[in-house]
Amino acid sequence: MTAVPQIVAHRGASHDHPEHTLAAYEQAIADGADALECDVRLTADGRLVCLHDRRVERTSDGRGAVSALTLAQLDALDFGSWKGGGAGPAQVLAFDELLALATSAGRPVELAVETKHPTRWAGRVERELVRQLSLFGLHRTRLGERPRVRLMSFSRLALRRMAALAPDLPRVLLTERAPLPGRAAALPRGVRIAGPGIELVRSRPEIVTRLLAAGHQVHVWTVDDPEDVELCVRLGVHALITNRPAQVRAQLAAV
Ligand code: G3P
Ligand code: CA
């Protein structure tokens, strides 16, 4: 029997809603996503917010780098209307608001949190992330319990920092173009999950096979196309990170 992969909503249900907004995450939960993916950045006043880009221009009506704006300044911007298609204004989502949402969903909803910009803040992002998680009791896992949170980065340095701060939490090494060799030694020590982009999986599926044979988990992003879903299921990956959780859930239900 083919194992059904976990569905992870990439920036929320971000195909239909402005990414990283409350509406996108509420929709993802309603769509039955098993986990919510989120990028975190630090504001000028040291608050963690859910945003992907270094600057706010693409997803808001404001200007400037996230790191140069305070949370109050970000709060004054509209992060919704850029999406069009009926999406109204939306505020930036602070990371603690996402934690509150995920922990009050009425069912277990996991979090896959990616830190951006590992070098700028010399570890402050990771420290603040783990501090925020600890306020919700999510920074550690009790024996026998499935971890509710996993930490992701393209940066091995960021993963090492997170390992020191929250050793219980699984870590995911993301990779875009550089092929991940399939040997166990290819992932940094203590990292058991590889996060390749779908282009890499399409062009080098044998990498996934080798990682799985070595006992690693494989979480693939961003899997929106039904053919890609099919490929990932055939390969036996553990998680599909998608902008379209409802569509992927419907497809998996038919597997
Ligand atoms: O989930 C991993 C994926 O989000 C990495 O790429 O650019 O969307 O953060 P990006
Ligand atoms: Ca991401």
Automatic annotation (TrEMBL):
Q: Which CDD domains match?
A: GDPD_like_2 (cd08582)
The cross-references to Gene3D superfamilies, in alphabetical order and at most eight, read: Phosphatidylinositol (PI) phosphodiesterase
SUPFAM superfamilies in UniProt: PLC-like phosphodiesterases
Question: Where does the UniProt annotation place the signal sequence?
Answer: none
Cross-referenced PANTHER family, in alphabetical order? GLYCEROPHOSPHODIESTER PHOSPHODIESTERASE 1-RELATED, GLYCEROPHOSPHORYL DIESTER PHOSPHODIESTERASE
Note the InterPro entries from the entry.
GP_PDE_dom, PLC-like_Pdiesterase_TIM-brl
Q: Which residues form the GP-PDE domain?
A: 5-252
Top-level taxon of origin: Bacteria
The entry's protein name is Glycerophosphodiester phosphodiesterase
Q: Kindly give the PROSITE patterns that the UniProt entry links to this protein.
A: GP_PDE
